Amino acid sequence: MPTVFEQENFAVKVYFSDTDRHQAPHFHLWVEGESVASISLLTLTPLVGGPVSRRIMKVLEVRIEEIWEAWHECNDA
Amino acid sequence: MSATMPELPIWEQRAYQRMSAAELRDGELWIRFANGDEVGVDPRRLLRSTERADWESMTVTPAEILVPVGDEQLAISWFDVRASTDPDFAGYLGQAADDEAARIGQRLRAMREQRGMTARQVADLAGITPVSLSRIENGHHDVVYKTLQRLLSAMNFTLADLASFTTPVEPDMARVRLKEAGLPPTVIERILEGGKAGAEQVARRLQRIFGWSAEDLTGSDPLMLRPVTPLRFKASTNQTPESSAYSQWALAIAQLVDEALERAPADVPDNPLAIREEIVAEHHTVGFESLLSWCWKHGVAVVPLDDSGGFHGACLTTEGRPTVVLKQRTSSASRWAFDLAHELAHIARHLPADGALIEAGEISLRPGRDDDEQEANDFAGELLLGDPDRLADQLEQDSAGQIRRLKRAVSERAQAERIDTGVLANYLAYRLSLYGTDWWGTAAKLQDTAVDAPHLTLKAITQRLEPDRITDPDDRRLLELALTRENSQGD
Q: If you measure CA to CA, which chain A residue comes closest to B12?
């Protein structure tokens, strides 16, 4: 399953195709069980969707290494 | 040139992102979307291994297709399907990748400069050539993960630092771009603290409020706004770019206010008479002061802003916690009471748990606005006056149908009915205007000038804010700057 982690009411997911080299490395943010945004992995810039609350953005900043590892696992799979 | 709130591209629309059905036909996976699109794609583009995929047992949810593959269940997102089948979306993502490379390059260069290191020093420590580093910093090169880690490590930074890093923005350049974006000078000087804010501070603030990075600001393209919350404007004729940028400012401040308050989600009654009854029971009369008090008691924060420009008010809900932003050139308590009651109607009837609504144009009693606006006006009239139609009929009798007797009749009737004289006068002026009589001048003379509504609102919020709840010290400063009244600004 693509879920990297869940915290409070949101989850971060990475899919196999997110490692497409023609796209900026990115992940997907789900809030309250709904897909709400696709966010670039290095600068946390929303590519599609949003807005992302500051509370969630701060968690993403703190857990970015974890998301990166998941993205690489997906890329190497 | 002004900042614009662009029309959302098709891929930002929910129906474009939501899948409703999928089936495997002739070796292709056919997927139907909520907007009626049906697209076909080679499933090998979506799953790494399709050998053991059990397509018959796949499950389609709005955002994912779940496919059993052996013991696992693999997921395909709407994003992948669209990127594989919509050339426009794929093109946008390609451009976004280039923009991201430029952002990373600018940040790496700014980080290097912050450390006071030369390109050669960093390149040597990271084991790459200065030419490669230059290409990366100029955004001409997709930096691979391992190289990026070595670069960050050479400068003693982490990935988290890169993600949260803000490239500095010189205040003078920011002033020019903010002016172009249509922001009033008072707001620009609040953000720049009259030129005293540092370049890093300015960059963080602009990113925080408008989502504008240094890369956006140094470019020559018009600045684009991405809404900070699901947002809609009232009074479509007044959706000016200027009010777009100011709205973003107002909403950012409303969010900071929300952060600085401890409060539960509020339940604003749908019935204005229920609110009126409660206020009358406690305060005997419904005026701005008593309505403001009711708002705070029921978890509705009220924020006064003091800037020039075409924005008149907004309401915002964050996880069910409502905040009203008011901005009026007049300090008339009756006008502020009407606007506040009007915004309460939107909170009670028109806003979701997370959303915002902007009053770009003046909140007005005049007819001809959209249904929500008319409904909010009726709500405000009932909340403040109880039964406005009955009062109007009564006043006609009190004055024996003579305009010259109306002023006195309004004062006496307001006193007898324990209602706000100014609100009643404004309502009557509105009624008379429908019949071609201009009574606004007399109504203006009946306004209570003893109550300074902006001052009262500021006092109420200042007493309740707990700035220490805001974790970022600069955000605390920003809120303080936003709430400073214009005549006490040093500019």
A: A49
Between chains, do A1 and B75 touch, taking CB under 8 Å as contact?
yes
Residue at a domain's end among B85, B113, B135: B85
Contact B353, B319 (CB under 8 A): yes
Say if residue B256 is in the same domain as residue B380.
yes
DSSP class of A16:
G
Q: Which residue of B has its CA nearest to A59?
A: B160
The pLDDT of residue B458: 95
Enclosing domain of residue B260: 231-385
For residues B151 and B81, state if they share a domain.
no
The answer to whether A56 faces chain B, any CB pair under 8 Å, is: no
B144 & B61 share domain: no
pLDDT at residue number B491 = 35
Inform me whether the C-beta atom of residue A7 falls under 8 Å from chain B C-beta atoms.
Answer: no
| Planar angle of CA B405, B407, B413, nearest 5 degrees | 95
- CB under 8 Å to A37, separation ≥6 — which residues? A28, A29, A46, A48, A49, A50, A51, A52
Q: What is the distance in angstroms between the Cα of A51 and the nearest Cα belonging to chain B?
A: 5
- The reply to whether A44 touches chain B by the CB within 8 Å rule is yes
Condensed to tens digits (0 to 9), the pLDDT of residues B104-126 reads 999 999 999 999 999 999 999 99
Domain ranges of chain A: 3-76
Residues of A in contact with B101 (CB under 8 A): 24
pLDDT tens track for B309-319: 767 788 988 88
Within this chain, do residues B193 and B134 fall inside the same structural domain, yes or no?
Answer: no
Tell which of B385, B403, B421 closes a domain: B385
Chain B hits for A44, CB-CB cut-off 8 Å, are 163-164
**Distance of alpha carbon B359 from alpha carbon B346, whole angstroms:** 11
Asked if B311 and B272 sit in the same domain, the reply is yes
- Per-residue pLDDT, B78: 95
Residues of chain A with Cβ-Cβ distance to B228 below 8 Å are 51
Nearest 5 degrees, angle CA A21-CA A26-CA A28? Answer: 135
Would you say B289 and B278 are in contact if contact means Cβ atoms under 8 Å apart?
A: no
Instruction: Note the pLDDT tens digit of each residue in A22-60.
Output: 889 999 999 988 899 999 999 998 899 877 877 888 899
Q: How many CB pairs under 8 A join A and B?
A: 109
**Cβ-nearest to A50 among B84, B96, B226:** B226
Q: Is the pLDDT of residue B290 over 80?
A: yes
Q: What is the ipTM, given to two decimal places?
A: 0.95
- Rounded to two decimals, the pTM is 0.76
B244 and B308 together in one domain: yes
* Residue A7 bridge partners (DSSP): A10
Select from B50, B67, B79 the residue whose CB has the most chain A CBs within 10 Å, as the one to mutate to test that interface: B79
Most confident of A44-58, B214-228, B358-372, B415-429: B415-429
CB contact under 8 A, A47 and B75: no
Q: Which residues, at least 6 apart from B370, have a Cβ–Cβ distance to it below 8 Å?
A: B234, B235, B236
Nearest CA in chain B to A52: B228
What is the rounded distance in angstroms from the CA atom of residue B303 to the CA atom of residue B286?
Answer: 20
Q: What does the pLDDT read at residue B248? A: 86
Query: Do B375 and B280 belong to one domain?
Result: yes
> At residue B466, does pLDDT exceed 90?
yes
A76 shares contact with chain B (CB less than 8 Å): no
Q: Which range is least confidently modeled, B67-81, B240-254, B327-341, B398-412?
A: B240-254
